[in-house]
Amino acid sequence: MTVLAGALLILALLLVLAEAHLSTGGVIGAGAIVAAVAGLAVLLDAVGASLVVALVIAICVAASAVAPLLVARRRILRPLHARPRTGREALVGHVGVVRSASEPQLEVFVDGTLWRAEPDPIHRETDLHDGDRVVVERVNGLTLRVRRAEDWELSQ
Fold this sequence. Notes:
Blueprint: H1 2-21, H2 27-47, H3 51-77, E1 95-100, E2 106-110, E3 113-119, E4 133-140, E5 143-148, H4 151-154
Parallel strand pairs: 3-5
Antiparallel strand pairs: 1-2, 1-4, 2-3, 4-5
Helix pairs in contact: 1-2, 2-3
C-alpha cells in the first residue's frame, strides 16, 4: 500500500515538473493534484488513519492546491481575450473622418493619421463623401476597410 502511495506522489511530482515546462493551461497540473491527493489518501489509509480523517485531509489538500491553480489560470488566460491596444489591429472599431472621397482613392483620418481606405463591400450601397464619419471594419496591409458610422457609434 505504501508503495502505491509513494508511486502516486512521485507521479504527482513529475506532473508538476511537466506542467512547469509545457504550456497546457493547468491540465497537467490538475492531474498532478489528483495524483497527490490520491497518494496522500492511500498513504494515510496505509498508516492506519480512519477513512474519515484521510478524506478530510485529502479534501483540504486538494482545495489548497486547486485555488492557486485557478488564480494562475485566470491570470494566464485573461490577456488572450483582451483587445489589441497597439498596432494596426487596434484600429478596428475606431471612428474616423473622410478627408478625400475621390473615386480612385479614399482617404480617411483616424487617430491622428491619414490612411488610404476603401468602402466595405457589404455596405457599398452608401456613398461616402468628404466629412463623413466612418468606422474601421478591417485592416488589409496599409488600407482600411471602412463603413459609414451609425448614430449610436458617434455618441460613445
